[in-house]
Amino acid sequence: LPYLSQLNNLRILLASASPRRAEIMRCVGIPFDVHPSNFSEDLSKQGRTPHDYVTETAVHKACAVAREVPSADLVVGADTVVVRDGVILEKPVDAHDAREMLRVRNDQSVNQSINQS
Hints:
Radius of gyration: 16 Å
Largest sheet: 3 strands, parallel
Distance between the termini: 17 Å
């Protein structure tokens, strides 16, 4: 990454508590601090494509952290949704729901997983 050295002088915040997102940034060599967003992730899915929904959620997460920490030079927001038959699957509410979502995700009927940052 040609501009990676320029990032070393910036205060970069990851607006997520996701260990996987932090791992990705560490693997790339981006220096950052974790500052989870307090955005409630309650955007309406009505009239939004899954891509629009995940993009808007990532932007809202980043903006929420930027407002909390105005001294940050860069805030990285990200979101992921699983889509089945064009419908965004919600986050699991409990362990049983999580197992079912994983089963469905491993099923051939899941169309896509969309990540945005």
